[in-house]
């Protein structure tokens, strides 16, 4: 239910600009470590932010590891990505929307998850360079006061990613364009404590990574009539079956949260999607003050 709640907020936040405040404060985090102890600080940070954190050694991950209790797995400073069948299992879980992945370190994890070539750390300021993505949409471009020293400095961002912030000569905040994966500044380093702004950014990172892209329907709770989209997948024209005589405001977003269409209607509506590229989209409907979100697939 919390993921549905977040998704509703996500699309509301695209239409009405959100301030830099935490988006949601109740995700189940699997935090990985391997021995340096920095993850103890990270665990405290995330719990202070309201999340539930289970800290385990990265070596326990296997081809049969059960990720279902968790919304997101976070690789801390001292944890590496799994290899072999364990990595394949985690990649499959991530690609099927089973769990989000956040990397707060470099080494083999950024390459294993198709994010970049390599990553080190820098004491340079984090600079927001792209605030068109939902994660950074609540912040202005420019230098962000993180409140702590070491930040990710990733090189070789892949063509499947979008860089949202830099630090020094490299990238400090990067999202994958197809899956819920993020490379972000390291939270939990012993030098410094995250600022309020940094916590707000991390809340948005966690919420975006934890979003279950298969959980897209929000019921119109006070309506006895169902909302339906057909055909779906759609090639040319989509029919929206809506409550009779209901006033509807609609917005269509791509998987990055960018609005690509908007419309108003009273009752059923036909949507021409010929201008949209093939892929997955989300239709947000405001119906008499209530929200329903449906997934739409354009396929030709």
- Tell me, rounded to a whole number, the average pLDDT: 79
Gyration radius, in Å: 20 Å
Estimate the helix proportion, in percent.
10-25%
Low-confidence stretches: 1-25, 214-224
Q: What order do the SSEs take from the amino end to the carboxyl end, as H and E? A: HEHEEHEHEEEEEEEHEEEEEEE
Give the neighbour order of strands across the main sheet: 2-1-3-4-11-10-9-6-7
- Count of helix runs: 5
**Major beta sheet summary:** 9 strands, mixed
For the terminal residues, how far apart are their CA atoms? 33 Å
Ordered list of secondary-structure elements with their pairings:
Blueprint: H1 2-15, E1 28-33, H2 38-48, E2 52-57, E3 72-75, H3 84-95, E4 100-103, H4 108-112, E5 118-122, E6 126-128, E7 142-144, E8 151-155, E9 161-167, E10 170-176, E11 181-183, H5 196-210, E12 228-230, E13 237-241, E14 247-254, E15 259-266, E16 269-272, E17 279-287, E18 290-298
Parallel strand pairs: 1-2, 1-3, 3-4, 4-11
Antiparallel strand pairs: 5-8, 6-7, 6-9, 9-10, 10-11, 12-13, 13-16, 14-15, 14-17, 17-18
Q: How is this structure best described in words?
A:
A 9-stranded mixed sheet has the order 2-1-3-4-11-10-9-6-7, covered by helices on one side. Strands 15-14-17-18 form a 4-stranded antiparallel sheet, with helices on one face. A 3-stranded antiparallel sheet has the order 12-13-16, with no helix packed on it. Helices cover 19% and strands 33% of the residues. With 300 residues, the chain is α+β, with helices and mostly antiparallel strands. It is globular. 38% of the residues are buried. It is built from 5 helices and 18 strands. A hairpin with a 6-residue loop joins strand 12 and strand 13 (237-241). Residues 1-25 and 214-224 have low confidence and may be disordered.
């Amino acid at each position: 239910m919390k993921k549905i709640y977040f998704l509703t907020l996500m699309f509301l936040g695209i239409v009405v600009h959100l301030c830099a405040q935490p988006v949601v404060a109740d995700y189940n985090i699997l935090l990985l470590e391997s021995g340096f102890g920095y993850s103890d600080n990270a665990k405290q940070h995330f719990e202070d932010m309201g999340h539930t954190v289970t800290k385990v050694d990265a070596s326990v991950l296997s081809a049969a590891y059960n990720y279902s209790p968790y919304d997101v797995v976070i690789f801390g400073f001292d944890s590496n990505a799994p290899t072999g069948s364990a990595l394949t299992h985690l990649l499959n879980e991530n690609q099927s929307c089973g769990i989000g992945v956040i990397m707060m370190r470099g080494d083999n994890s950024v390459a294993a998850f198709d994010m970049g070539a390599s990553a080190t750390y820098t004491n340079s300021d984090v600079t927001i360079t792209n605030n068109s993505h939902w994660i950074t949409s609540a912040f202005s471009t420019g230098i962000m006061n993180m409140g702590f020293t070491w930040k990710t400095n990733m090189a070789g961002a892949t063509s499947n990613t979008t860089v949202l912030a830099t630090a020094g000569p490299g990238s400090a905040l990067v999202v994958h364009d197809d899956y819920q994966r993020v490379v972000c500044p390291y939270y939990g380093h012993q030098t410094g404590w995250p600022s309020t702004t940094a916590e707000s950014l991390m809340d948005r990172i966690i919420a975006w990574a934890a979003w279950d892209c298969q959980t897209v329907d929000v019921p119109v709770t006070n309506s006895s009539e169902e909302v339906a989209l057909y055909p779906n997948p759609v090639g040319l024209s989509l029919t929206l079956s809506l409550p009779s005589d209901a006033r509807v405001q609609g917005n269509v977003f791509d998987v990055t949260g960018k609005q690509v269409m908007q419309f108003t209607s009273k009752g059923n509506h036909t949507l021409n999607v010929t201008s949209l590229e093939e892929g997955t989209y989300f239709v947000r409907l405001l119906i008499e003050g209530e929200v329903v979100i449906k997934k739409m697939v354009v396929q030709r």
